[in-house]
Amino acid sequence: MGLGTYLVDPGKKSFALVHRTQPWYQAYMEALFEHDTFRISSAVNTAVEKIGQRQRELLVGPRTALERR
After folding, report:
1. pTM value?
2. What is the residue extent of each domain of the chain?
3. Which of 30, 32, 22 is nearest to 52 (CA)?
4. The pLDDT of residue 65 is above 70
């Protein structure tokens, strides 16, 4: 995992795997491990859509330097 997958919580001085709490990550994992050949295309399309949505959010919304990386 790269540096961008971790974000520091200054109050707790700990690391969190923030990407795992994002909807795009769940969709990505579902597509990655889909075994039904009839559902793979749909799962991949959903993941691509959610990843694109998060990319757009990062362009206009608040984010940290680590998440941008």
Report:
1. 0.67
2. 20-68
3. 22
4. no
